[in-house]
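Figure 2 data, in text form.
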Amino acid sequence: MIPVAEFKQFTEQQPAFKVLKPWWDVLAEYLTVAMLMIGVFGCTLQVTQDKIICLPSHEPRENVSEAPCQQLLPRGVSEQMGGLREVHGLKNNLDLQQYSFINQLCYETALHWYAKYFPYLVIIHTLIFMVCTSFWFKFPGTSSKIEHFISILGKCFDSPWTTRALSEVSGENQKGPAAGRATATMAAAAGAGPGKAGEGEKEKVLAEPEKVVTEPPVVTLLDKKEGEQAKALFEKVKKFRVHVEEGDILYTMYIRQTVLKVCKFLAILVYNLVYVEKISFLVACRVETSEVTGYASFCCNHTKAHLFSKLAFCYISFVCVYGLTCLYTLYWLFHRPLKEYSFRSVREETGMGDIPDVKNDFAFMLHLIDQYDSLYSKRFAVFLSEVSESRLKQLNLNHEWTPEKLRQKLQRNARGRLELALCMLPGLPDTVFELSEVEALRLEGICDVTFPQGLSQLVQLQELSLLHSPARLPFSLQIFLRDRLKVIRVKCEELREVPLWVFGLRGLEELHLEGLFPPELTRAATLESLRELKQLKVLSLRSNAGKVPASVTDVAGHLQRLSLHNDGARLLALNSLKKLAALRELELVACGLERIPHAVFSLGALQELDLKDNHLRSIEEILSFQHCRKLVTLRLWHNQIAYVPEHVRKLRSLEQLYLSHNKLQTLPTQLGLCSSLRLLDVSHNGLHSLPPEVGLLQSLQHLVLSYNALEALPDELFFCRKLRTLLLGYNNLSQLSTHVGALKALIRLELKGNRLEALPEELGHCGGLKKAGLLVEDTLYEGLPAEVREKMEEE
């Protein structure tokens, strides 16, 4: 007997595939097993037992063709068909081999093909049904997607993060929004989610901030390994979703195999109903074997006809039930929109309002899973939510960035404040807010920062930098920071991305903004109102503005420093600068200026002016600076200035003049009349000589002449007895005057890159000059007398 296990390979699938089998596929599978058992049972009987038994007919030869087996029918049937006479106890004189020969011959020629091959047909049809049912699990184009989906689904279902996320939601539903620091972060993260649901969560944070304060998390943190596994699952789900939502091959394949099963069912049902009556107990057989056996007609008994007829009706019944399941499957396929799947109920139940709806094959597989157990799709949805992902990232961050590790990153910044700098993190660790000693917080490259209520623990925070780190701030924290924060820096792609709460920090003293105006707003250069910034003293704007933003005048009464860096974009309208009466420092860097703006001359309180990296060619307007009586620093470096006008002498209060990186060939003699000048930088020009009048600059302490073409220095230069820094590197000097010894205050002297053959020993008279402050080639230094070198090397 053939065991049913031999046919297992036709239906063998991975056990995990059962989640994609709805109840009708499971029922159909059991029906195919029953039909297969019918076929195997029939084949076994056919092989192991006699198929047919025949006896010769003793009717006259001329009547043989009429009804050779009529005499063996029951009496009633015989009478109805004409009432032939009965024959009893006739001897046939045939041996066993003749009977065997007749049996085989009549089986092949007289028995109807349906009765002969019925069990084989059952097996063939059943195998076709099995192939149709499981074909999409085997076809390369679909099996890979199914296996990948089942693998991800199982990991999502068993992931500890799934249980954690759903349990937290359950706790929130029971206790309200106050669920500890971790829940605070999650609620805030929900506010960052897309869509109306995300906005609703954000309003919830703004409305009830005081409820979420100091309670510990309800659920313990995941360990590092579980957190990394969950993080990897989020990435897999994202990539799989993009891949599967592109097409509908699974949906199409399932429809095709279902349609094929329906057609197969109809064909089997029709021909079985037609031919089932061909299975008869008595079979008349006429063969020309009279020369061999002495008989030409035989009456045969199909020994399994009765059993086969019962199996046939049983088989037809199973086929009918199978066909009904196929018809229901078609109804289900075409009655519902299976290429779209909505997580609406999951969103309502879990509170994760950003779970997206899916389509195509992704949606179809989720519909099938719901027929198995809707809990699978609910747990799977956790890994489709950006809110859930942000919660996981937050937990991993808290686990990785402990307070001890963060304290190791604390250091003093340029302003002397204790600063914590975090760069390129997936989020903001909650543990940051346990460092109450932090005075400055710098966040760079951290996406979608949402400050939790824990920020209120940073009672000493005065400085905040948000560099490509868009941040959301609940209203209660805006109140907390409004009077505490003194300095804020915001850098983003476009200035309209600057958070609005920044312009409401009324205690702010310094505001630094960096970003571009959109092309349509470049000329208007509209910036948010600064009226609330009552104490603002420093405003820095790096952008591509076409004019000075009008809102700058909102702080005209108290703004002391304004810096506009335009990255080469031309700044056209500057008239609003006239209103900045209290301005002390002005920087117009890379603003495409060709002239010194006339609006600058109206700034009576101006002390420092920086016009770096513009297109200045002429500075004839320098005469007008005599109206800026407090001007002490003038930076005109990195331009294209070819000469300095003579009326520079009018700038008697000027203390620092920067003219480096220009195209100067000479300096005016009247420069010596700038009696207050303490620093003069004319490096990186084309100067060939210095006017002797430079010796009149008795207040000069720092003179930078590097990278010019100087061949000699006037002796009058060494009358500047207060000179502390003299940089002469990379010129064409062939000798250094012995008068250099008169510079008793000199502490830094650069002579590298010249044509010097020796250094004067009078350098030893420069009491403040040490070896570290003398920048010269080693060979020249070694040429100094030993006592001079020893004196310079003394500490």
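Caption note: Residues 63-67, 75-87, 173-220 have pLDDT under 50 and may be disordered.
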